[in-house]
């Protein structure tokens, strides 16, 4: 299949380009290097060093024996998006090209507006360009489990049967997002659902859990092919951040009680699931929702797991609770379904503790690099919009 990846320079995108190529697909993609700039704005950098796209593409050609067609530009420009799709002629489009950070969207009005307009505009442009250029192609759009929030009900995959005053219908399950970023994903989901109905588009909306991990072993050890891994307060997702904290002897910082529950999956499982979604498209006009995660965990379970894995490397870690900068439920029911991907063939890669040990081993050589930006680990972005440093000092 010819698969176009919007957001191919990102954490998932650069890994997916290689995972799909290894499965025999022809991959191309676009990016405007925004993630690199956002992390720089947060005073940080990727813990795993990454090279320029020019060097990435050279390394790709050496390893896979073919060129990866790449378009550098802003997906907020419609002519740019249409031209890329016209030149590439995709069978499937994977849309990863959004700003993925809840804290970044909480900084101030400028960042909230940026995240929502960026995410809605890139989605609109891909939808309209697909209608114009590739109406039979399949859109795989990355949403997030965070769209559902934490309702006091079990969470189905996208839709549920409801009965009201004696009448029944199958309706989208209510979304109760917990940040401006997560609401941008809800709005994007609604637009994809409507476009699918309007233009007979085949669409898969992936409600993905929190991804963690460095690049899968199958990708080899050429450092030019490694994907990024962030640890700053806005772009470092929790397990990646804990592992970076562990390798520099920094306390593992839990927000609030740590009893919050979320769905998680390792990077290689995210790749497996996305490949399965691409290779098993729904029929035209169908809007399909897949809940994509391996298992639900409590956040404090991860702190314990990372501390234990770090201990095997002789790293002593302390677990610290900070005032929660977010507005979220800490004690809550959480039981989302996730059967559809299993039906498509998803088999979890397994041992999470082994995955953590691999991550720590890969991060240890970069401890000085992480230490150099350790200020970026601490959360001073608050959901209320008041930006103030938490009362907590870094160890010297
Ligand atoms: N990483 C996770 O844990 C996770 C979990 C759930 C959902 N997701 C979703 O998966 C997708 C990818 O996540 P990621 O972690 O790889 O993020 P990422 O920021 O690393 O990747 C997104 C890429 O899109 C590019 N991009 C964004 N806006 C653009 C624009 N206007 N023009 C051109 N390029 C643009 C960025 O430069 C970046 O390279 C996102 O939609 C995110 O919401 C990620």
Helix content: 25-40%
CA distance, first residue to last residue: 52 Å
Unreliable spans: 390-396
Side-by-side strand order of the widest sheet = 3-2-1-4-5-8-12
Bound molecules: nicotinamide-adenine-dinucleotide
Summed over residues and divided by their number, the pLDDT gives a mean of 96
Helical/strand content category: alpha/beta
Any idea what the radius of gyration is? 20 Å
CATH architecture: 3-Layer(aba) Sandwich
Silhouette:
globular
Strand content: 15-25%
What is the count of β-strands? 14
Q: What is the helix/strand order?
A: EHEHHEHEHHEEEHEEHEEHEEHEHHH
Write the CATH fold name: Rossmann fold
Can you count the helices? Answer: 13
CATH superfamily: NAD(P)-binding Rossmann-like Domain
Could you say how many structural domains there are in total? 1
How would you portray this structure in words?
With 396 residues, the protein is α/β, with parallel strands linked by helices. The protein has a single domain, classed as NAD(P)-binding Rossmann-like Domain (Rossmann fold, 3-Layer(aba) Sandwich), CATH 3.40.50. 38% of the residues lie in helices and 18% in strands. The chain contains 13 helices and 14 strands. A seven-stranded parallel sheet has the order 3-2-1-4-5-8-12, with helices on both faces. It has a three-stranded mixed sheet with strand order 9-11-13. A two-stranded antiparallel ribbon has the order 6-7. α10 (299-311) packs across α12.
